[in-house]
Amino acid sequence: MYRIWLVLIAMLFLSCRSSAQVVVLAIVSDPSGITLTGSGSSAAVMTFGTVRAFGGTVPSGVTKTVGANNWTLTTPIDLQVTQLILMLSPNYNLTAQLMFADVQNTWKLNSVTLSTAASTITAAHAYGTAAYTFSLTIPFSAAAGLISNTINLTATAN
How far, CA to CA in Å, does 72 sit from each of 35, 61, 140? Predict the structure, then answer.
């Protein structure tokens, strides 16, 4: 059995423009996904609790898929990106990266595999709330135990 914790942390960056811009990113529980602790803030926690590949249950809003060599937990989350003060930016770019390297499990946001290097999740996305799919794939070769990491999200005004 595995205990899985995930901390989602939003990092906000401003593009280099001559006038001030403020971009606010909030992580929100998707109505059809897992309930996030701290939903609506820039630092939300996703807790799957104790789960296993065969048998058992998963939290409401989480889908478990068992493959030939691994199993995957998937849930939607919402990201709300708002531009405040001056409305000079038409859209934003979103990147994500793991805080800690994980050579065993596969962490994804939408279809993008995450690592400790920033990966573009979406480019030139309109401001507002958008649904994203989080997934964690665990190989059967992994020993049972705690799985924990942090995903840093960065929204940059264009």
Answer: 18, 14, 11
